[in-house]
Amino acid sequence: MMKAFPHLTRSHKLTSVPQNNIGSEFCAEIGQRLNLIRTWLEYSPKEFAKAIGAPQKQVLEWEEGNSMIPPEIAVQICNIFGITTDYLYRGDELGIPRDFASHVMNKNIVF
């Protein structure tokens, strides 16, 4: 999994941009989409964090909209789980697998 990102290792310290530098609404929207991805996969926060090589606490901060996902981690999440950065950052539903779209539509969630 990590071969596409050789500069990232399990010991790589992940940093996030504080949400007040970007916009709390934008961070919250990305966090909601990240949470949808994780729950669609039926991963616990711990399992999801392990899959992307991030601390669980950091994943929860991203989901809560308290900080922004670093771009290299966002790309990694998209590559691993088959979504696009257009979906993660902008909510573009064309960037998600069909079964994930069905999951989201069944929950009556607006992109």
What can you see in these coordinates?
The protein is mainly alpha-helical. The protein has a single domain (20-106), classed as Orthogonal Bundle (434 Repressor (Amino-terminal Domain)). 53% of the residues lie in helices and 4% in strands. The protein contains six helices and two strands, in the order βαααβααα. The protein has helices spanning 24-40, 45-52, 56-63, 71-81, 85-90, 98-106, and strands spanning 17-18, 67-68. The protein has a two-stranded antiparallel sheet. α2 crosses α3 (56-63). The protein is globular. The protein starts with 16 loop residues before the first strand and ends in a 5-residue tail after the last helix. The relative contact order is 0.17.
